[in-house]
Design a protein that fits this description.
The complex is a heterodimer of chains A (311) and B (384). Chain A has 311 residues and is of the alpha+beta class. In chain A, 25% of the residues lie in helices and 23% in strands. Chain A has 9 helices and 11 strands. Classes of the chains: A alpha+beta (311), B alpha/beta (384).
């Protein structure tokens, strides 16, 4: 009887101890997920013309943009980037992930529980850092300042990192003047397949997009990469009157149409909109009026510039 | 036991013990899982050491972190929010009208006093702030009015009477003391804009007016004719915070009161002056932070936000100038809706300041014929 009782006690203690050991195991071992840490080089593939040299002004096809976005983009003059105040602006993170340059990712772990507190991303252009808070902290209140990186929080769903970002400054979805409002939000799904990192992104904007703008961007893991600092200081590149903002006035429409006419895209189609995202739009394109000849567009541009200078 | 052999009793005892042990382990595991699940929604205090925003480099603009009890606009409460250095934002006024407060060893300075209805709560919140973060002097000594609109000066009477002014002595008396009421300072033109009980008791006319308070220079910049002819912008030089008043708003187009001396070109000159006063931080890359700006309405911002706002206002101004130069009447310009592509964010079709009112103010205050290229060129700024 005494032997039986002792055995029973030993078994019970061992089983209880097993539960205790399981409890005390590090959290990371309990909810393991993909490791995104390291250096990553951008893969461009078919996106190279947009992400490297950049799109022409007037090239808005295939984007679910509103007429207001088209109007703002048509007003935008690339010369505005020579203004000193704009020279060191980084990309907002909703565009920056698409930009040129290598990516570095690292994480912060709580020293006691080893749970992820934050995942940080760093893009070489303008040394743009973004912090993705993984600890459930609330987003800032409505009166807090906004930033180029926005405020990001994330969580893992299996091996996919879900990220939500808001509190952006006014920014852009393309480097030809297409704007985003400071109420834009950015949702991502990041996952790794071997040495390839994929980031599926969705930009939502109540003013300038009729529906989420969805893109995917890929990076390849490298052992190390060419990470240089990005010191930036504003200088006066073009002397102009203080307060002068380069822009296109209402009469300057030819410059916007040149891209479409030169590339044989109907002008209406080049203005974008959700319809233009789908292959069925080709049927609509066949019914659009023909473009004016390129020579006429070029003459109009010269006349409009001359009328502007003579005021 | 009846009908149970000794061997059976061993088996049953061992089985019972095993189940008990398993149950005990399961209970412990479940309990710890719950604890872990709860802790995943709580910021673990020790992990703040790893928060890059707490590092010395980012000390100046740790404006990101949210709090669980942070409140929402329009909830009827005043919410202090640390901007930078000595300066706090008191958020929560109706219409997102902003109040800025400087707290330090010498006492409290308040920029604008919000609405009359919220004044008691605002005063209580300022006094609580001073009790927590003030120095030896905790009283409100200075109130600055950035303009004469009631959503910025409505609380003057209550907030002023919640403070006091240190007065000096002359050779006949050697007892310096306090006089009831803080000193309310504003531009001279405010005396014709607001009711007498809300008057500033000290006025000035200089383009720049400065003094030292709480170990930093406080500089008042008077734009000649921005929203009105009585605007002030306040620069806290060491804290590196600029309170612009209604020169800058993050919720609507600038409110330009032509009957009270406001003009669109004066407003743009003031915005450009504010851009000169604000300096962005270029350390470690992105142009961000540096001088923090408390606008008259809406969220905190920095130079980049101010530049974007200025570009939008300049764009609209140039469009209206373009049409006016070509002989279009006000009604014709209104019909063209020169603000339509920015209205969803900045414009209103109803309320106290609509897009149409803004366009009319721009049209009415533009010269009959604009400068070359239809574009804004800043007029000479007094004291600029």
């Amino acid at each position: 009887m005494a032997i039986v009782n002792k055995c029973s006690v030993v078994v019970a203690v061992l089983l209880a101890a097993a539960g205790t050991v399981l409890v005390s195991m590090p959290a990371s071992a309990q909810d393991a997920h993909q490791n995104l840490d390291g250096f990553w080089n951008a893969l461009f593939d078919e996106d190279e013309p947009e992400r490297i040299p950049g799109p022409d002004q007037g090239d808005y096809a295939g984007l679910p943009i509103t007429p207001a976005a088209v109007s703002v983009a048509q007003t935008w003059d690339p010369e505005v980037l020579t203004i000193p105040y704009l020279q060191c602006r980084p990309h907002p993170s909703l565009y920056g992930i698409r930009g040129v340059g290598s990516l570095r990712i690292w994480e912060d772990l709580d020293p006691q529980t080893l749970r992820q507190v934050a995942i940080h991303t760093w893009i070489v252009a303008w040394e743009a850092q973004r912090d993705i808070w993984m600890d459930g902290r609330p987003h800032p209140p409505q009166w807090a300042a906004h930033s180029w990186a926005g405020y990001s929080t994330g969580h893992w769903v299996g091996d996919v990192l879900h990220v939500h970002t808001d509190d952006y400054k006014r920014g852009w979805t393309r480097r030809n003047g297409l704007p985003t409002d400071d109420r834009a939000t950015f949702d991502e799904r990041m996952f790794r397949d071997g040495q390839i990192l994929t980031d599926v992104t969705m930009v939502s904007d109540p003013e300038y997009l009729t529906e989420p703008l969805v893109k995917s961007t890929e990076y390849q893991k490298v052992a190390n990469t060419n990470f240089a600092t990005y010191p930036c200081r504003e200088v006066t590149e073009i002397p102009r009157h203080e307060g002068d903002i380069p822009m296109h006035l209402p009469n300057q429409t030819a410059v916007e149409q040149e891209y479409a006419v030169r590339n044989h895209v109907p002008i209406k189609a080049a203005e974008g909109g959700a319809d233009t995202m789908f292959p069925e739009y080709q049927d609509t394109m066949k019914k659009l009026p023909p473009n004016p000849p390129l020579r006429r567009i070029e003459q109009q541009e010269q006349q409009q510039d001359k009328a502007d200078e003579n005021l | 036991m009846h009908g149970i052999s000794s061997r059976g009793r061993v088996v049953r005892s061992a089985y019972g013990a095993s189940v008990a042990g398993l149950l005990l382990g399961a209970v412990m595991l479940l309990g710890s899982s719950n604890a872990l699940a709860q802790s995943s929604t709580v910021v673990i205090s020790k992990s703040t050491r790893l928060d890059v925003r707490q590092s010395p480099y980012y000390k100046g603009y740790d404006f990101y972190a949210g709090r669980a009890d942070q409140g929402t606009p329009g909830d009827g409460e005043i919410h202090p929010w640390h901007v930078q250095g000595n300066v706090w934002l008191m958020a929560g006024e109706p219409g997102e009208s902003n109040v800025a407060v400087q707290v330090g060893n010498a006492g409290v300075l308040v920029v604008d006093t919000g609405t009359q209805a919220m004044a008691p709560k605002l005063l209580a919140a300022i006094q609580k702030l001073a009790a927590e973060y003030g120095g030896e002097q905790k009283a409100i000594h200075w109130v600055i009015n950035t303009d004469g609109l009631m959503d910025h000066v409505g609380g003057n009477y209550i907030v002023r009477n919640g403070g006091n002014t240190i007065v000096g002595s002359n050779f006949q008396f050697d007892n310096p003391g306090l006089t009831p009421g803080a000193t309310v300072i504003g531009n001279l033109n405010l005396l014709t804009r607001i009711p007498q009980p809300l008057w500033p008791n000290e006025t000035h006319t200089e383009p720049i007016y400065s003094w030292d308070f709480n170990d930093e220079a406080v500089r008042l910049y008077h734009p000649v004719s921005a929203n009105t002819d009585g605007n002030e912008m306040v620069l806290f030089r060491r804290s590196d915070v600029l309170a612009t008043g209604d020169v800058l708003s993050m919720v609507h187009y600038p409110v330009i009161d032509s009957k009270r001396g406001g003009s669109i070109d004066g407003e743009l000159a003031a915005l450009n002056q504010a851009m000169e006063l604000a300096v962005a931080d270029f350390h470690m890359g992105p142009q961000e932070g540096g001088t923090m700006i408390v606008p008259g309405h809406g969220r905190l911002c920095d130079q980049a936000d101010l530049v974007e706002y200025t570009i939008i206002v300049t764009t609209i101004r140039n469009r209206v100038m373009y049409y006016k130069n070509r002989g279009k009447s006000l009604q014709q310009v209104l019909a063209m809706k020169p603000t339509w592509d920015f209205d969803d964010r900045w414009g209103e079709s109803t309320g106290s300041w609509t897009s149409r009112q803004f366009v009319q103010a721009v049209y009415d205050t533009l010269p009959a014929r604009g400068k070359g290229k239809d574009r804004f060129a800043m007029p000479a700024m007094a004291g600029g």
